[in-house]
Amino acid sequence: MEFTLKDLCERLNLEYSGDGDMIITHACGIDDIQKGGLAYIANPKEIANLPTPAGIFDSRKKNIQDLDLSQRSAVIVPIGTESPGSSLVYSNDPMLDHAKAAKLLHEGASKSGMVDDRACIGEKVKLGENVTIDANAVIYNGVEIGDHTVIRSGVIIMDNTTIGENCLIYPNVTIREHTRVGNGVILHPGAVIGADGYGFFQRERKNIKIPQIGRVVIEDDVEIGACTTVDRARFKETIIRRGSKLDNLIHIAHNVEVGEDSLITAQSGIAGSTRTGHHLMMGGQSGIKDNLRIGNNVTLLARTLVTSKTEDNSVVAGMPSRPIDIWRKIQALINSLDSLFERIRSLEVRLNKADDKE
After folding, report:
1. Residue positions annotated with a catalytic role
2. Would the N or C end of the chain have less CB density within 10 A of its end CB?
């Protein structure tokens, strides 16, 4: 969509200066601003660290006052920022308001509010108001879908699953039976929700499958990335708590509980029956061992493996994980191993010569 700068600021409840009739067509970064663009600067000092694209900044000066917005574009800036002749939008939190503007300017998936005739809908399915279901989606028996939810092509939702309101389920997502999905949830292409947990035991050297008869619960405002899997519980529930955001290619094993507002990045995994606190942050390719309790506000650096209970507010790194200050000391020692080796070899040579003299 597009708005005049005045209309957009009214929608965002923000003050502005400059050309209110300017047409804003898209959100963009400050280093890529073009006609109709809306960028943001959280701190005017950031200008000094930016590249200097031709026609945007004076190569000799990189201050907010030197922004060339003659291409009819605007910038969201902190309140009190000045740039005479420019079109500025004033905000207490430019990054947040830029995100809100981007949502207005760039509409998401189209919503017909209709069920395509080529979708396969089972018996006793309950659909809310303005539900969109695309062609080739398959909805099994007893499914409930809330108002304004969008189900894209190729999605499979199995028996007795409940989907909340204002959800967006992208193509080729599979949701197994008895799953419960809250409101405002986004599931990206290829995500699998409710696959069997990895449960086996051996008798007479043969692998025996343990039935996985629990379910998955995904609370409100959760986002799950492409090709991420969340396994169903053995007996009760695997839970992704409210507001958590999972990247692509993540594995959440059976019986896990991920705390509220957690951020988990790509190729990470949490093994079975682990429970994490709120605001967990996991760097890429990190992991947590099974049957652990992880505190609140815990951060894992990339490629960290947690193998023991972790207390609140911990920042850990390494494999196995250690507090960040200890890990850094170990890394420093590892980086000096070559010189330590040479010193030891030199001492050995000197000792050997001393022994020969005796």
Report:
1. 254
2. C
